[in-house]
Input
Amino acid sequence: MALLVYTFITETMKHQLYFVPRIIINRDGTKRVIQADAEVKLQLMTNALEDMIKEPNLADIQRDYLHDAIESLNHVLSYFGDPGDSFGEPPVTLDEMHTAAWQQHQEMHS
Output
């Protein structure tokens, strides 16, 4: 299980983002390691860069580079789409799943 660390260094500060994997214990006792997905990592990096821009000791050229980096990250994030988008189809609710299963059950026994 690897700890993923991204480090951003400016003249006055060092910023680090830690992506700690989560361990999920299944009912049968086995363990799964869940890493943050790429979209979450990119969003956290964007937030960190936006915080760095607010530092008073940055030179204008540094701010320009940070703005460019944020713009690039936002461009990449735009390709992930809406979090609720399931490849063009809306997600199925539990009620819809239950109704469909009940109808199928009724058809099998009629």
